[in-house]
Amino acid sequence: MQLSVVVEKEEDGRWIAEVPELAGVLVYGATQSEAMARAEVLALRVLAERIERSESGPEPVAITFPAAA
Hints:
- This is Type II toxin-antitoxin system HicB family antitoxin.
- By secondary structure, the protein is α+β, with helices and mostly antiparallel strands.
- The protein is built from one helix and five strands.
- The strands form two sheets. Strands 2-3-4 form a three-stranded antiparallel β-sheet, covered by helices on one side. A two-stranded parallel ribbon has the order 1-5.
């Protein structure tokens, strides 16, 4: 499974990060790296819950981050 993290800076200065391939994986952080880390953690939690509930089988996961600005 190939996942990507999309990060943007909001007008209020916070960073928002999401994993478009997983519905509901959308988080905020005070910094770009904090938002990216939170998105990765949440994505892994979502995948773990899906496996625990037998909604999907385990498969290799690759998470791609945007290039640093």
